[in-house]
Amino acid sequence: MFGFIKKSLSKTVAAIKTVAPKKKITFTKDELEDILLEADVEYALVEIILNEIYQDKITREILRSKLLATLAYTSYKEPKFTPPFVELIVGVNGAGKTTTIAKLAYKYKQEGKKVLLGAGDTFRAAAIEQLTLWANRLDIPVVSSKQGHDSSAVAYDAIDSAKAKGFDNVIIDTAGRLHTQTNLANELKKVKRICDKAHKGAPHRTVLIIDGTQGNSAISQAKAFNEMIGIDGIIITKLDGTAKGGSIFSIAYALELPILYVGTGEQPENLTPFDKYEFVDGLLDAIFVEEE
Ligand SMILES: Nc1nc2c(ncn2[C@@H]2O[C@H](COP(=O)(O)OP(=O)(O)OP(=O)(O)O)[C@@H](O)[C@H]2O)c(=O)[nH]1
C-alpha cells in the first residue's frame, strides 16, 4: 500500500513548488512560512510550529519532528466489542460519505468479513439510491427504507439483521443535512441511542468524513459534528484532488482526533490507512534535498 499517500500529494506538492521551486538543504523561517501556508496549513498552526524552532537554518529533521508532533493524536485504538462492529458514518453532503462507506465495505469484504450496510440518510432519496447502487456493485446487502422514513429505524433493523445472521460489520450512513442544524443534531443523537439499544455498546466507532478539498474550512464543520455526537476518528477524502493537503495537520491538531484513512481516488480500493510518516515525508521530499 506504500506510495498511495505520497502519490496523492502531487497537487499539494505542485502548490509548494510555486513558492519553493528549488529543493534545498535548509530553509529560513520566512521561507518555511510561505511553504506551509501554500500547502494550506492553517496560519495559527504555522506560527505555533515556527515559534518552537530556534535555529536560523531549518533542516528537514527539525521540521519533520515539528510536523509529526502536530499529528500526535492520529493513532487509533479499536475498542473492545461484541460483533458485529457497528460504525456510524457522518458528514455533510458531498464530502464523500457514500463512496467512503463503499470503500470501507469493500475493505472488510476483502478481509473475509460479512458486511451489511444501513442506508440511514433517509432525508434524500438519492442517498439511498447511491448506497444501494454501491451495495449491488459490491454484492453486499443493504437495509433501507423509503425517503422520509425514520433513520434510526433503519439503523435498528440493520443491526438487528446483522446480529441475527452473524455479520461482522455494520456500516450505517446518516443524513448530512436536515431542515435545521438542531434537527440534524437531534436525529444523529437518536440514531446513536438506537444503535446502543439494538446492540449494547454500538456504535463502536463514529467516523466523520471530511472533504479534503475544503482544506481548513472543514475544521469548524468537524468541530460542530464532534460537539453534536462525539467523533472517534476522521476519514479525509479526495486527498488526490486537492492542493490543500497541509490542512490535514490543522484538522488533526485542532480536533485532537485520529485520522483513520485518506481517500486517494474514486474506486472502492482507493482508501489508504493514514500513515503520518509517509504523509510528512511525502511533503518533505518535495521541499528538501538530502544532506550530503
Ligand atoms: N478523487 C476522489 N474523489 C472522491 C473521493 N471520495 C469521494 N469522491 C467523489 O466525490 C463525490 C461525492 O462523493 P459521495 O460519496 O457521493 O458524497 P456524499 O458525501 O455521499 O454526498 P451525498 O451523496 O451528496 O450525500 C463523488 O463524485 C465521488 O466519486 C476520493 O477520495 N477521491
UniProtKB/TrEMBL annotation:
Q: Which EC number(s) does the record attach to this protein?
A: 3.6.5.4
A Pfam family assignment? SRP54
The residues the record assigns to binding GTP are: 91-98, 173-177, 237-240
Which keywords label this protein?
Cell membrane, Cytoplasm, GTP-binding, Hydrolase, Membrane, Nucleotide-binding, Receptor
Please give an example of a GO cellular component term from this record: cytoplasm
**PROSITE patterns in UniProt:** SRP54
The membrane topology of this protein is: Peripheral membrane protein
Q: Which GO terms describe its biological process?
A: SRP-dependent cotranslational protein targeting to membrane
UniProt KW DNA-binding keyword:
no
GO MF term (any one): signal recognition particle binding
Which NCBIfam families would you find in this protein's record? Answer: ftsY
The protein depicted here goes by the name Signal recognition particle receptor FtsY
Species of provenance:
Sulfurimonas sediminis
